[in-house]
């Protein structure tokens, strides 16, 4: 009976160990289903390099645990970037480094994805970390200047809210569409195009062709988030 009990116990241990190995292998081979925004996009046809804040991007932890054994990894997803695996060690190094300056997290097609001060960005110009730092700081400075100009206009009695958004004349719309080649000036998309005021109407921008550009709905929304 004792021998039988030992044999049963040994068999149970073997089954548990085999299940543990199979479970861990399955976890290692598993890749999360990409979010809709994370599906790869064709390379941009625009000749203009750009850097954008990626409001969709995130790093999500993924753990495996069995009894006392525990393993952890992370997955990065961004706009146009399917799940990209980061080991726990990689994540810890990147997390510490991004507090000091921009760090490259992933690449997909023609885009690079950066992490800096808990914000994510992508570029299509093969920017360096110094390039990303310079462009982000420049945009932040310009945003502050826009806010200061709006306050100055309000203090001078020129309420920006009084500017009316008149309909863009049809001939102007046709001219801008042809001038921009029927594509988004930012990412090159041909879908859900909108006429964007480079200087917003609320800040005194006009509906002249020089102040208009074609943007897709996504790029237009991202631009609004920066203003």
Structural account:
The protein folds into 2 domains: 99 residues, no CATH class; 66 residues, Orthogonal Bundle (DNA Binding (I), subunit A), CATH 1.10.30.50. The model has no long low-confidence stretch (mean pLDDT 84). The longest helix is centred in the first third of the chain and has 28 residues. The chain has 5 helices and 9 strands; from the N terminus they run αββββαβββααββα. The protein is elongated.
Strand content: 15-25%
The tally of beta strands, per DSSP, is 9
Alpha-beta classification: alpha+beta
Helical coverage, percent range: 25-40%
Number of domains: 2
Rg from C-alpha positions?
Answer: 26 Å
SS summary, helix count: 5
Question: Which geometry do the CA atoms define?
Answer: elongated
List the helices and strands and how they pair.
Layout: H1 2-29, E1 51-53, E2 58-66, E3 69-78, E4 81-87, H2 88-97, E5 103-108, E6 111-116, E7 119-123, H3 129-155, H4 170-179, E8 193-197, E9 212-216, H5 217-226
Antiparallel strand pairs: 1-7, 2-3, 3-4, 5-6, 6-7, 8-9
